[in-house]
């Protein structure tokens, strides 16, 4: 009986986990930053962010609770990357707040590194209206950053594609 209950529990847990993964069949995925869950990923993001950007130099102290987290397999390698959005006045400006992607290179979450943007930066300032598009370049998903705060223009819906080394902006 214990085996049956254990198997049943495992089936329900697996079904729940699969149900909550972003579905590739639904079209573009709208990133939704979670400020409560993903404790392990938030800790990784906080430590890597503060190692890369001196969190003590800014006028506003950075706290792990400032980190919104979402998970998505952007390079289609079977591992979820950590998408972060830092809602902290010290890392926000007229173009939004800091957004970055962290790639985990091992199953123990010990080897984390940034996915780079065209200006050789680890983060990009943007508003949180971010979509992961179904299209991809070199197996990395394309991104669209929607700026709903300005009149429609070339940069209102910025699309970024992977070129093999970093994400670069293209005009849609």
Number of strands: 11
Structural class: alpha+beta
Distance between the termini: 58 Å
Count of separate structural domains: 1
Taken in chain order, the helices and strands follow as: HEHEEEEEEEEEE
Oligomer: single chain
The rounded Rg comes to 18 Å
- Number of helical elements: 2
C-alpha geometry: globular
The parts where pLDDT drops under 50 for at least 5 residues are 2-25
Helicity range of the residues?
A: 10-25%
- Provide mean pLDDT, rounded: 80
Estimate the strand proportion.
Answer: 25-35%
Largest sheet: 6 strands, antiparallel
Structural overview:
The protein is an alpha+beta fold and 172 residues long. The chain has one domain (26-170). Helix content is 19%, strand content 33%. It is built from 2 helices and 11 strands, in the order αβαββββββββββ. The protein has helices at 2-19, 39-52; strands at 29-30, 67-72, 81-86, 92-93, 96-104, 112-114, 123-126, 130-137, 140-146, 157-162, 167-170. The strands form 2 sheets. Strands 2, 3, 4, 5, 6 and 7 form a 6-stranded antiparallel sheet that branches. Strands 1-8-9-10-11 form a 5-stranded antiparallel sheet, with no helix packed on it. The radius of gyration is 18 Å and the shape is globular.
């Amino acid at each position: 009986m214990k085996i049956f209950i254990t198997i049943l529990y495992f089936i329900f847990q697996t079904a729940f986990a699969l149900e909550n993964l972003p579905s590739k069949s639904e079209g573009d995925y709208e990133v939704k930053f979670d400020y409560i869950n993903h404790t392990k990923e938030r800790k990784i993001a906080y430590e890597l962010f503060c190692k890369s950007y001196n969190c003590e130099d800014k006028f506003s102290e950075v706290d792990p609770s400032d980190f919104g987290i979402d998970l998505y397999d952007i390079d289609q390698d079977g591992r979820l990357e950590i998408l972060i959005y830092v809602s902290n006045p010290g890392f926000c400006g007229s173009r939004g707040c800091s957004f970055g992607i962290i790639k985990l290179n091992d199953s123990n979450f010990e080897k984390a590194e940034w996915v780079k943007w065209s200006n050789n930066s680890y983060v990009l300032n943007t508003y949180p209206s971010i979509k992961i598009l179904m299209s991809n370049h070199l197996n990395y998903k394309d991104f669209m950053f929607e700026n709903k705060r300005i009149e429609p223009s070339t940069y209102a819906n910025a699309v970024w594609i992977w070129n093999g080394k970093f994400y670069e902006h293209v005009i849609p």
